[in-house]
Structures are given as structure tokens and as C-alpha cells.
């Protein structure tokens, strides 16, 4: 009786054709290269995506450094906030309020609704 499941050899042939640990099969090697083709090790590939990723990472690092500098200056001018004090809770409440209002206004503007006619609390 034949099995409905594929054999081990079939699975290896389908899914592991390019695996480095797989035993080579006769006729499985790449065709010989022409003498006129450039050697791949001499010419590295360049990817616009990789270049953009590197530039974005660099830009992000610079932005974080600038933000840290500005944050330290602002904290020095305003004084630090001790955790779990009234000033701490007031700052958290105000920041949360700003975040909620901003997201509500942004969603109203994205939908094309008038910001002044839409209440902040839906009825």
C-alpha cells in the first residue's frame, strides 16, 4: 500500500536543494562560467535599500543625540521631576491629555471632518 505522504528523498529534493549540508547529487552543480563573465568576488553588490537603511540609521542616531542634549538642557532649566510626586502625576496627566487630543484631531483631519464641529467625547 502506498503512502499519501512524500518520501524523505522527495522532501529533501524540494526543500533543501540549496542547503550547504546536503549531499550533492550528480548533475546538481552550476554550469561552468564563461571566461568573459566578471568574477563576483571582485565586484561587490550595491543595494539602494541597504544604503537607505544605513543613512536612516545614521540620521536616527544623530536625532537621538540632539534630543538627549535638548532634554538635558530643558531638565536643567525646569528642574528634575521626582517620581511619584504631585508634579510627576501632573506632568503625566498633561502629557496624556496632549497625546489624546492630538490623535483625535489628527483622525478628524484625516477623515475630512471639521475639527471645531466635532466634540472630543463621542456621543
Task: Kindly describe this structure.
This protein has 123 residues and is mostly helical. Helix content is 52%, strand content 0%. The protein is built from three helices and no strands. The chain is elongated, with a radius of gyration of 31 Å. The termini are far apart.
Structural class: mainly alpha
For the CA atoms, what is the radius of gyration?
Answer: 31 Å
Helix content: 40-55%
What is the general shape? elongated
Distance, first to last CA: 68 Å
How many DSSP H or I helices?
3
User: What profile does the largest beta sheet have?
Assistant: none
Strand content bin? under 5%
Q: Care to count the β-strands?
A: 0
Spans of at least 5 consecutive residues whose pLDDT stays below 50 are none
Q: Secondary-structure element sequence? A: HHH
The overall average pLDDT, rounded, is 77
Short description:
The chain is an all-alpha fold. 52% of the residues lie in helices and 0% in strands.
Amino acid at each position: 500500500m502506498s503512502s499519501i505522504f512524500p518520501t524523505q528523498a522527495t522532501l529533501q529534493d524540494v526543500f533543501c536543494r540549496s542547503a550547504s549540508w546536503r549531499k550533492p547529487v550528480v548533475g546538481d552543480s552550476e554550469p561552468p562560467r564563461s571566461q568573459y563573465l566578471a568574477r563576483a568576488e571582485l565586484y561587490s553588490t550595491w543595494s539602494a535599500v541597504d544604503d537607505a537603511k544605513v543613512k536612516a540609521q545614521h540620521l536616527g542616531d544623530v536625532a537621538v543625540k540632539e534630543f538627549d542634549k535638548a532634554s538635558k538642557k530643558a531638565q536643567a532649566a525646569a528642574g528634575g521631576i521626582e517620581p511619584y510626586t504631585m508634579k510627576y502625576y501632573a506632568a503625566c496627566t498633561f502629557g496624556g491629555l496632549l497625546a489624546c487630543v492630538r490623535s483625535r484631531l489628527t483622525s478628524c483631519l484625516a477623515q475630512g471632518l471639521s475639527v471645531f464641529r466635532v466634540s472630543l467625547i463621542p456621543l
